[in-house]
Amino acid sequence: MKNFRFAAFISLALLLSNNALSQEVGCDSLEGFDEFDFWVGDWEVFDSTGTTKVGENSILKMESGCMIMENWTSANGGTGTSLNYFNPVTSEWRQIWVSAGRYSIDIVGGIRAGAMVLEGSIYNFGGAVWNFRGSWTPNADGSVRQFFEQYNHDSEQWDTWFDGLYKRK
User: Fold this and answer.
1) pTM check: above 0.90
2) Residues 6+ apart with CB under 8 A from 109
3) Which residue segment(s) compose the domain that 96 sits in?
4) CA proximity to 76, closest of 56, 104, 91
5) Per-residue pLDDT tens digits of the chain, which is 169 residues long
6) How many separate domains does the chain show?
7) Is residue 159 part of a domain?
């Protein structure tokens, strides 16, 4: 009888642990994972004046709130995708962007003065590397300004790479 109780206890423990492992906990309730939520949604993207449409972007929370995926399509048909995630160990956000235009961006950072600010590098698949930084600033009307800069090694200055206004569809 003692062996039966022990076997029943082990079976119950295994069943409960398997059920616990199969349930996703997610990241929605964890600190930091909601900092980029202001960018989540379907957007029409305009130039900095807000008048000329330059593309559309769909920003989705995925993996139970642990990751944000971006799917960009420019007005002329160019595309790109980014994966964005918060690392709770380093307390930093990271964006990895890859474009059919044969370049990638790898930037890291977090919230500064109410904006998401990420810095790192842009890589041309031909071998060139430049310092790169971007900021996403939520506006009172629900729009978001996205501003990217690339470091120019010749002039030793930051040049505007993209300045756009996101308006919800």
Assistant:
1) no
2) 92, 93, 116, 117, 118, 119
3) 27-168
4) 56
5) 555 554 444 444 444 444 444 455 899 889 999 999 999 999 999 999 999 999 999 999 999 999 999 999 999 999 999 999 999 999 999 999 999 989 999 999 999 999 999 999 999 999 999 999 999 999 999 999 999 999 999 999 999 999 999 999 9
6) 1
7) yes
